[in-house]
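Example record for the data management plan.
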Amino acid sequence: MNWYQYLGLACLIICISACLWHFFRLIRLGKPKDLSKKSGNVFRAEAYSYTIAMLPNQKESVYLHFPTFIAGILFHIGTFISLFLFIVFFFVHPEWFREWFVLALALLLVSLFLVVSAVSGITLLFKRLFLKKIRTLSTIDDYLSNFFTTLFQVFTAVYLIFPNEVATYYYIFASILLLYLPVGKLRHAVYFFAARYQLGFFYGWRNSWPPKKQK
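Corresponding structural encoding:
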């Protein structure tokens, strides 16, 4: 491996270690304590919280912002793909995929999708910048998280097509993102699961989730 790959690997280890620290910190806090009388099924509510409750038709205002919802979904998928490929690249160089037509075509399609997901990220960034209602609620962390993640997807898309030309820049920027992930807003990759668990527990305890079907 080259020096920039060692840099990326070191930052990945730091990132995973920090995220594990967040995770075990959450575990140590224990289960939520609720003094009210239990009236529902918490287990069913937890299952609902992580599945059906995430669908757009179960959210209160998604129908008013459906394009933004779709852009967010694409943006998150692009982020997951980029992080997955970053790990894959330690074992397989992108040029290896070019030896087989099907894999080369898949590589091109993934790169094109990452461009679409990055455009979605830019759209969300512009919306945060120019819509007053969102701008007043935003912090510098919101902008940096979006900027770093979007640019990471762009670098990944370019690295898939031109691996030798942009390898150094790709690994350096990926390293910056990985170091920022556990200290900024992006650490919600860990806290997301705890938040969904809290929601499921709260509404399940009170027999509000899963919602009752209207007769």
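Summary line stored alongside the record: The chain has one domain: 3-31+66-205.
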